[in-house]
Fold this protein.
Amino acid sequence: MGGGYYDRSMDTNTTSSNVINNSGKLDPLLDPKQYKDTNMVSTTRQPIVFALDVSGSMSEWPQIIYDKMPMFYGQIMMQGYLTDPSISFCAIADLEDDVCMQTSRFAKASDIDEQLTKINLGGGSGPVQRQEAYELTAYFYHKMCDLQNCEMPFFFLTCDEDYHSVLKRDWVKQFLGRDSEADIQGKKIFQLLMNKFNVFIIKKNYNSYLEAGELNQWHDTVGENRVLCISNPKACIDLILGAIAITYGTTLEKYVEDMRTRGQTEDRIKEVSSSLNLYNECLKNKTIVPIRYEVAEEKVSSEVNKLNDFCKNFSSLKLDSEEKIQRYNNYLKISNDFQGKIPDELICPLTNKLIFDAVRICDGTVFERQAIEKWFMENDTNPVNSNVLTSKNLETDVKTNAEVEEFYESYKDLI
């Protein structure tokens, strides 16, 4: 994983504004009310929540940051900062805006772009009372998101203002569809969130007079070492990437060298490292201990053995025409001859081969159709992470099939 599509410059000037949702409407797949009865679920080892204020006061920040998200994921994988990440996006405006909050399911690899195209970046005209619905987002990921098979979760909020001091139960019902027993203090919600995620506030400078008071409130809420200030929106992704890297075990010195290797300027490196310095010192002297969950290794080992046995006994696909058989044989040859060059997202976890007929199961994982159909004959779990599924329905993955076709056309003349 890491070459090609995800090997683009972290400082690219290209934008995705032509595919970002600018309709001003909430895409149903991003409506947090869809989780009013059943929580959103993350099934990867290192889930990342990327929450961003998209209101007018953030000006060009939302577009710049979202343009860089695919490269952000690619750098995590190429540099090995995490082993099994996924990203849930949350776009935040204010309570009076037409679209107050948007939440995407946790996504990996090329699926990230698909989620980004649904997000509406038009979040209103900016602050009146300098408070945005940040506490609503904290409530959602604290109460309405389950972390399964999780080792180390991250929550990043990129913002420029305050949260509301009180989250009213009526707002929870109105925007999230869930009943809350009482109003909740905004500070309390963030402190509860910090028991579940490694929380960071990425603070954009806005107004020197007002910003000082807001900064103090964030310091009081999550701790000064968790508030990372930045003035350059192009450095925001570098800052978040650095926070992830040093939390998971990379040294700040090594991360600085990585920034130089990918061509970042000394000014950018200085700004990012300065912002990370206090947090890094707290990690080194152990005044901060990152949130880390233990994975049940015995269960994992048993499930891995079951998966290995399945993969070993799954021989080949049953196809109904000579044309399909010939094409499938070509896919097998490409899989064998070009190991290590095929993007991970184009390889079925059950066959370990280039996918021939891609389908997506209910939690978003992609498999070879016949392989997952056979798995579902005796199991009701996702074979990748052993999580019990709510449905065995399969959906043809048009996007992955198109990417496989493109990869095949690039390599077929070499076999």
